[in-house]
Design brief:
PH-domain like; four-stranded antiparallel β-sheet; about 250 residues; single chain
Length: about 250
C-alpha cells in the first residue's frame, strides 16, 4: 500500500482526484498460489520439492546452494479522475509490489533456512548470502559487463554496466557515468511490479556529478555487482551492502 499512497500523492499534485482503494489480494503465478510458502520446513523440505512448487518463480540465481523466488502481489488499486468528478475522465489500475523467498540448502539439498522479504531488501539478502557462500574472487583482468535497461520517457533504454578494477562505468545512449569505486556508497533496490528483474540504483557520485538513476537487473547480475563491490570495496562499502543501502 505504500506504492498506492505515493502514486495517489503524485496524482493529487498534478490536479487529479485520486481514490486509493483496498482490493482482494492477487498474486502472480499459478492460480492455486496465494503467496503462502509455509510448506517450506527447515530440516525436511528438499530442493526438489522447492523447485516442484516454486520453480515457476525462480529468479535465476546460478547457484544450486540457494533458491531465490519472486512473485508479484497486489492488495490495492487507484482510481483517478482528471478534471473533476462531474466533467473529468476516469481510469484505474491495480498496484503491484514484488515479494521474494530466499531458501538456503545444506550439503544434502535439504532446506537449512528461508526468508520472505520485499524487493527493497534484496540487496542486503544477497549480500548476506555472498558473505556466507565464500565465492572465489572475480577475474577483473578484463572488465565484467552486465546488461540492463531502464524506462525513460515511456520508452525502454538499453544500458550496459562495466565493472573495472577501480571504476564502475554505466553506458546509456549518448551518455556515460563513471563511478570511482571509492566514491560508491552502496546499492539500493526499490519496489518493482510484475517482473523477474529488480530496480537497482548506485549510491554515490559519479565523476561528472550526475547519476544514471535506477535501472533493471536480473538476480544473477545483481549478485555479480554485489560480489564485485565486496571484492574491490572497503569494509564501509561491504557494511552498506549488508544494510541494503540503508543508513
Amino acid at each position: 500500500m505504500r506504492t498506492v499512497a505515493l502514486c495517489a500523492l503524485i496524482l493529487c499534485l498534478s490536479g487529479c482526484i485520486v481514490l486509493p482503494i483496498p482490493t482482494p489480494t492477487h498474486t502472480t503465478g499459478p492460480k492455486e498460489f496465494k503467496g503462502d510458502v509455509s510448506f517450506i520446513q527447515a530440516g525436511s523440505t528438499t530442493r526438489a520439492q522447492i523447485l516442484e512448487k516454486l520453480g515457476w518463480a525462480n529468479a535465476g540465481l546460478a547457484d544450486e546452494r540457494v533458491f531465490l523466488g519472486r512473485w508479484g502481489t497486489s492488495s490495492g488499486a487507484v482510481i483517478a479522475v482528471a478534471g473533476g468528478i462531474n466533467a473529468g475522465t476516469a481510469g484505474g489500475w491495480r498496484m503491484w509490489e514484488g515479494r521474494n523467498v530466499m531458501v538456503e540448502f545444506d550439503e544434502n539439498e535439504v532446506v537449512r533456512s528461508y526468508r520472505v522479504f520485499d524487493d527493497p531488501e534484496v540487496i542486503q539478502e544477497l549480500a548476506g548470502w555472498a558473505a556466507r557462500a565464500q565465492y572465489p574472487p572475480l577475474d577483473l583482468a578484463e572488465p565484467l559487463q552486465v546488461w540492463s535497461w531502464r524506462m525513460r520517457d515511456h520508452k525502454f533504454e538499453d544500458l550496459a554496466v562495466d565493472l573495472r578494477r577501480d571504476t564502475v562505468d554505466v553506458h546509456l545512449p549518448g551518455r556515460e557515468f563513471r563511478f570511482a569505486v571509492n566514491n560508491i556508497e552502496g546499492l539500493r533496490a526499490s519496489a518493482k511490479a510484475e517482473s523477474t528483474r529488480y530496480r537497482v540504483e548506485i549510491l554515490g557520485k559519479s565523476q561528472s556529478g550526475g547519476k544514471p538513476g535506477p535501472f533493471e537487473l536480473d538476480a544473477e547480475s545483481v549478485m555479480t555487482v554485489i560480489r564485485y563491490l565486496r571484492q574491490v570495496g572497503g569494509s564501509r562499502l561491504v557494511a552498506s551492502l549488508e544494510r541494503g543501502g540503508k543508513e
